From TrEMBL:
The keyword Oxidoreductase applies. This is Short-chain dehydrogenase. Keywords: Oxidoreductase. Residues 1-20 are annotated as: Disordered. It holds the Pfam family adh_short_C2. One of its GO terms (molecular function) is oxidoreductase activity, acting on CH-OH group of donors. It comes from Ahrensia marina. Belongs to the short-chain dehydrogenases/reductases (SDR) family. The lineage of its organism: Bacteria, Pseudomonadati, Pseudomonadota, Alphaproteobacteria, Hyphomicrobiales. PANTHER family: NADPH-DEPENDENT ALDEHYDE REDUCTASE 1, CHLOROPLASTIC (PTHR48107:SF16), NADPH-DEPENDENT ALDEHYDE REDUCTASE-LIKE PROTEIN, CHLOROPLASTIC-RELATED (PTHR48107). SUPFAM superfamilies: NAD(P)-binding Rossmann-fold domains (SSF51735). Coiled coil: none annotated. The keyword Cytoplasm does not apply.
Length: 276
């Protein structure tokens, strides 16, 4: 199966454009907080960055090389009154992650929220055709990158800090064309649960969000046109979700509304029942 577009995808080339603007006025739930978001240039990351800014946060956005998308997101964050720092690089590189975190703290003053969100996926029909190169690359971005960015952040996170990780509905029920991606998302689920236990005595909360079919740049970047056309229509709600329908989960888990939650996962997936 050919990948129609570069990974992890370009939002400005999508038609229709995803819906990323928050739907409601802010309430100051992240007033004076600083959040770092990997993969914050587009998709769910963009919607989350804008919503966090509306709620009073300053944002550091880590992105691979989607500069046009990242600059638009930064402008939207600033329109909401938030400061925005753009940091270009590959989260699969441990040294880069360490530099990104230190640069965020240096420029924005502190670090209160980390959203580990950057991901890539590559659709392959046959399990045995997943190449060693692809397997390594998917794990390096989707799970190594989470470890690297969170390890780098730990010295700066104080009590009441929040970590939010993006896992996926595929962690719970798999996806025939995305076996390596699904595996990384299962690993992220285990990371959320284990790290939440590890950091509970520091009062650093660790939670996750497991989106279902959401209209983001990963979709046209991963699937041929016929699958993109049908994307999300088999969900109980009969359509794909939009990034601004997922971002409120990231807000809830980042702010004090969720002060008694850690090691948990929210499921904006259009109604698919989830267990486990």
């Amino acid at each position: 199966m050919e990948t129609p577009q570069r990974q992890p995808g370009l939002e400005h080339e999508m038609s229709p454009e995803p819906e990323y603007m928050p739907r409601f006025p802010g309430a100051g739930r992240l007033k004076d907080k600083v959040a770092l978001i990997t993969g914050g240039d587009s998709g769910i990351g963009r919607a989350t960055a804008i919503l966090y800014a509306r709620e009073g946060a300053s944002i550091a956005i880590v992105y691979r090389d989607e500069t046009e998308d990242a600059e638009k997101t930064a402008a939207l964050v600033e329109e909401e009154g938030g400061r925005c720092l753009l940091i270009k690089g590959d989260v699969a590189d441990k040294d880069f992650c360490e530099k990104a975190v230190s640069q965020s703290v240096e420029k924005l003053g502190k670090l209160d929220v980390v959203v580990a969100n950057a991901a890539e996926q590559h659709a392959v029909e046959e399990f045995e055709n997943i190449s060693e190169e692809q397997l390594k690359r998917t794990f390096q971005t989707n799970i190594f990158g989470y470890f690297f960015i969170l390890q780098a952040a730990m010295p700066y996170l104080n009590s009441d800090a929040a970590i939010v990780c993006t896992t996926s509905v595929t962690a719970y029920r798999g996806q025939d064309l995305l076996l390596d991606y699904s595996s990384t998302k299962g690993a992220i689920l285990a990371l959320v649960r284990a790290l939440a236990s590890k950091l509970a005595d520091k009062n650093i909360r660790v939670n996750g969000v497991a989106p279902g079919p959401i209209w983001t740049p990963l979709i046209p970047a991963s699937f041929p046109a016929d699958k993109v056309e049908r994307f999300g229509k088999d969900s109980p709600l009969g359509r794909p979700g939009q990034p601004n329908e997922v971002a409120p989960c990231f807000l809830f888990l980042a702010c004090q509304d969720s002060s008694y939650m850690t090691g948990q996962v929210l499921h904006p997936n259009g109604g698919e029942p989830i267990s486990g």
